[in-house]
Design brief:
This protein has helices spanning about 5, 10, 25-30, 50-60, 75-85, 95-105, 120-130, 145-150, 175-185, 210-215, 240-250, 260-270, 270-295, 315-325, 350-360; strands spanning about 40, 90-95, 115-120, 135-140, 160-165, 190-195, 220-225, 235-240, 305-310, 325-330, 330, 340-345. By secondary structure, it is of the alpha/beta class. It has two domains: about 5-35 and about 275-360, Aspartate Aminotransferase, domain 1; about 50-270, Aspartate Aminotransferase, domain 2. It binds pyridoxal-5'-phosphate. Pyridoxal-5'-phosphate (PLP) binds near residues 96, 168 and 197.
């Protein structure tokens, strides 16, 4: 019998997530030196990891023979202090992506519905499908989550609703008032998931903690992959009610977050200087991209995150042309945005390389 037929139905039809190609692969394919390649495809931090996190990670590997703290005790207590919440209100994951999967394990069965925006972060839909549940996709309005339409899409079968703000791939955000109002009007049988992967980049990030005080069924997700520059180490967290965190703890692996990641995350959390520098440089980079794209006559979606959607005509062709010049961006065809690419805000040199490569290609939408 073919292995295919032994698979669960949800796995048989499961789509595959296409990550940005690693620099080494692109360099090999193009016969280029990897150091000559500018990767602006995965919203990684152009300033590297927090130096304090690197030092902590190096110390941690010296104890590589010991299992990590399965409960992430120190990290959760550091987070509790930072957020003025209690340590049992945090769940730590192998990237915040793992927490999205844990939500699937805990809540989703075949026939359930999960409401999400489109285009939004691809992982919501992938996890939904993996558990045999049905994604209900609500189009953005003027590039933002349309929280009214999302509310209307909720039925008796809805288990989870995902809201990504700032949204990936659009870089647009909803206001605190909008998010609070939305959460307060959800029916009691729905869990709201607020993905705040890019919230640190906002000048005034919405504070959704009042929803926890009001005992609402919400969880907010954060990551160390972006502003803290630790994408390689895979660590993210959720803050929610103690009850929610206990439920998610039940469905995770005992040692889901490795020790190097835990120590690096604790150090990064306290490295205010690095975080502030990243945010400041990102703001400069956004401005640099905006000004130059305007003068190139290219349309873009104004962003409050560390990436930007740019309209380039044929996105697959644009992607290839940029890649042949050693600049990797993300084509947005798979998100239904055929004419757009998503570019990560890099250092000013990297941004210039991207802009110059665009000029050479001379795209017109
Ligand atoms: C990058 C990103 C994450 C973070 O994922 P990790 O697993 O923590 O690396 C989560 N949500 C969105 C929308 C993202 O873009």
């Amino acid at each position: 019998m073919k292995l295919e037929f032994l698979l669960k139905p949800s796995v048989r039809t499961q789509p595959i997530y296409e990550p940005g190609k690693p620099i080494e692969y692109v360099a090999r394919d193009l016969g280029l030196d990897p150091s000559k390649i500018t990767k602006l495809a995965s919203n990684e931090n152009p300033w590297g990891p927090s130096p304090q996190a690197v030092a902590a990670a190096k110390r941690a590997i010296d104890r590589g023979e010991v299992y990590p703290d399965g409960g992430c005790y120190t990290l959760r207590h550091a987070l509790a202090e930072k957020w003025s919440l209690t340590a049992d209100q945090f769940i730590v994951g192998n990237g915040s992506n793992e927490i999205i999967e844990l939500l699937g394990h805990a809540f989703l069965a075949p026939g359930d519905e999960v409401v999400m925006a489109t285009p939004a972060f691809a992982v919501y839909k992938l996890v939904t499908l993996l558990f045999g549940a049905n994604p209900i996709e609500v189009p953005l309005t003027q590039w933002r989550h349309d929280l009214n339409q999302i509310s209307k899409a909720i039925t008796r079968r809805t288990k989870l609703v995902f809201v990504c703000s700032p949204n990936n791939p659009t870089g647009t955000a909803n206001t605190e008032a909008e998010l609070l109002d939305f959460a307060r009007n959800l029916p009691d049988h729905v869990v709201a998931v607020f993905d705040e992967a890019y919230a640190e980049y906002l000048e005034n990030a919405p504070d959704l903690r009042p929803l926890l005080v009001e005992n609402r069924k919400v969880i907010c997700l954060r990551t160390f992959s972006k502003v803290y520059g630790l994408a390689a180490l895979r660590v993210g967290y959720g803050y929610s009610s103690p009850e929610m965190c206990a439920a998610l703890n039940r469905v995770r692996q005992p040692f889901n977050v490795n020790a190097i990641a835990q120590f690096a995350a604790i150090a990064a959390l306290n490295d205010d200087e690095f975080r502030k520098m990243t945010i400041r440089e990102n703001a400069h980079g956004l401005k640099q991209l905006e000004e130059n794209l305007l003068s190139l006559g290219l349309r873009f979606v104004p962003s409050v995150a560390n990436f930007m959607l740019v309209q380039v005509g044929d996105s697959a062709k644009a992607f290839e042309s940029l890649q042949s010049q050693g600049v990797i961006v993300r084509p947005m065809k798979s998100y239904g945005l055929d004419e757009w690419i998503r570019v990560t805000v890099g250092s000013s040199d990297q941004n210039l390389r991207f802009l110059n490569s665009l000029k050479v290609s001379n795209f017109r939408p």
